[in-house]
Amino acid sequence: MIKSLRIGYRQYQVKAWSDAELLTTESYGQCDKQRAIIYVCTHLDDDLVADTLLHEILHAIWHEYGLQDDDREERIVHTLASGFIQVMKDNPNAIRYLAKMSKPEA
Question: Residue 18 sits in a domain of what CATH number?
């Protein structure tokens, strides 16, 4: 699991959730936008961990780039994360191409 990500101008920590957090929140992850921490249950299957991490990253992007916070955020973020994970699994060559094309210049 990655330890941190840069989203916008902020550095977000990425932390694993324990079973206790999973039970008390009934979710696989959470984005603490004020403290810049993304929590993910890492003991689930790999697809679900990847989907959850991307889901929480999208919440952070939503916040950092000033999108309106409304009742559609959760539905939009969920749909985009799940859809993108499936595109990545079904099109690994396209993902490698995008990563290569967006590589930072030396």
Answer: 3.30.2010
Domain span at residue 53 reads 4-101
Q: How far is CA 105 from CA 2, 6, 98, 100, in A?
A: 22, 17, 14, 11
Q: Is position 106 within any domain?
A: no
Task: Supply the pLDDT for residue 63.
Answer: 93
Q: What is the DSSP letter of 67?
A: -
pTM: 0.84
- For 46-82, write each residue's pLDDT tens digit: 989 999 999 999 999 999 998 877 789 999 999 999 9
